[in-house]
Design goal:
The complex is a heterodimer of chains A (about 240) and B (about 60). Chain A is mostly helical and about 240 residues long. Chain A has seven helices and no strands. Chain A has a domain of about 160 residues. The termini of chain A are far apart. Classes of the chains: A mainly alpha (about 240), B mainly alpha (about 60).
C-alpha cells in the first residue's frame, strides 16, 4: 500500500487508469441512460417517472460510497500519515457533494409527481441531507487553516465522526416508517425488480461509478502536481534569499 | 411519456453535474501539468506522469 503513497508512482498508475476509466464511464453511462430512458418498460404504478431511477439510484450509491471513501482516506491519514490520503480526501469532498446534490435534486424531482411534494422530512431524505452538509462541512474545514496539515487532520476527524450517518442512511427505511421505499436490490436477497429495468440500472450505476473514480483520480493528480509546483517555487524562493 | 418535465430535468442534471465536475477536473490537471513542465524540466521526462502534450517544455 505504501508503494502507492509515492506521488510519482501514483501519477504513473493513475495516468494509465484514467483514460480507461473515462472511456468505460462514457460508454456504460450512455448505454444505461439511453436504455433506461427509451427502451426500459414504464412502471405499472409510477408510469414513466420510474426512469428517474437510472440517475437517482447511482447518485445515491455514490453519495454514500464516496463518503465511505472519504472515511477510509481519513483513517489512512490519521493512522499512517499517508500523504496521498490527505489529498484524495480533499478531492473526494466536492465530487461527493456534487453527487449528493444530484441525489437530492433527482429525489425531489421524483417525489413531486409521486408523493405530491418536493420534499418531506422523511428519515431517508433527512439523513441524506445531513450527508450533504457533512460534505460541505468537510470542504470548508480542510480549507479553514493556514497550515494545510492541521486542516487535513481536522477534516479527517469530521469525516470519521460523520461516517455514523452512513448506516443511518442505509437502515433508515427499516428503522422508521418512511415515505421512501425500502431497498429493492440487496446483497443477500433476490432483487424485487423486473430484469428489464435492472440491466439499465446496473449499466448506469457502473458507468457513474467509473466516472466518479476517474474524476477523483484526475483531481488528485492535479493536487499532487500543484503540491510539487508549490514545493519547487518555495525551494527556488529560499535559494534566492540573500545569506 | 408522462411526467416528462421531471424526467427531462433529472436527466439534464444527471449529465450536467458529473459533466461539470469532469471538465473542471481535466482542465485543472492540464493547467497543473503545463505549469509544472514550465518550472521543472524534469517533469517532461517520460514516466513522471507530468509530460506536456509534445513532450517538450512550454
Amino acid at each position: 500500500m505504501h508503494r502507492f503513497a509515492n506521488p510519482g508512482q501514483f501519477l504513473r498508475l493513475s495516468g494509465t487508469l484514467v483514460p480507461w476509466l473515462s472511456a468505460g464511464a462514457l460508454v456504460l453511462t450512455a448505454v444505461g441512460l439511453i436504455w433506461g430512458l427509451f427502451f426500459a418498460p414504464a412502471d405499472w404504478q409510477q408510469g414513466d417517472a420510474v426512469r428517474i431511477m437510472y440517475i437517482h439510484v447511482p447518485a445515491a450509491w455514490l453519495a454514500s460510497a464516496g463518503y465511505a471513501g472519504l472515511a477510509i482516506c481519513s483513517v489512512l491519514s490519521l493512522v499512517w500519515r499517508h500523504p496521498l490520503a490527505d489529498l484524495a480526501a480533499v478531492e473526494i469532498g466536492p465530487v461527493g457533494a456534487g453527487f449528493t446534490a444530484l441525489c437530492l435534486a433527482t429525489g425531489s424531482l421524483w417525489g413531486k409527481p409521486m408523493w405530491g411534494a418536493w420534499w418531506v422530512w422523511d428519515a431517508r431524505l433527512t439523513s441524506v441531507l445531513v450527508l450533504f452538509f457533512l460534505y460541505l462541512g468537510h470542504i470548508a474545514l480542510v480549507r479553514a487553516f493556514d497550515d494545510p496539515v492541521r486542516g487535513y487532520r481536522a477534516g479527517a476527524i469530521l469525516a470519521l465522526i460523520g461516517a455514523v450517518d452512513l448506516p443511518i442512511i442505509k437502515f433508515s427505511v427499516d428503522w422508521w416508517n418512511t415515505l421512501h421505499q425500502p431497498d429493492t436490490i440487496t446483497l443477500t436477497g433476490a432483487p424485487h425488480m423486473y430484469i428489464g429495468m435492472m440491466w439499465p440500472l446496473l449499466f448506469s450505476t457502473l458507468g457513474y461509478t467509473l466516472a466518479f473514480a476517474a474524476i477523483v483520480l484526475t483531481r488528485t493528480r492535479a493536487a499532487v502536481m500543484e503540491r510539487r509546483i508549490r514545493a519547487l517555487l518555495m525551494a527556488r524562493a529560499s535559494a534566492q534569499e540573500p545569506g | 411519456m408522462d411526467h416528462l418535465p421531471y424526467i427531462a430535468g433529472s436527466y439534464a442534471l444527471g449529465i450536467l453535474i458529473p459533466g461539470i465536475l469532469a471538465i473542471t477536473a481535466f482542465l485543472r490537471v492540464g493547467a497543473a501539468r503545463r505549469r509544472l513542465a514550465a518550472i521543472d524540466p524534469r517533469a517532461n521526462r517520460p514516466g513522471t506522469g507530468a509530460r506536456t502534450r509534445r513532450g517538450g517544455s512550454q
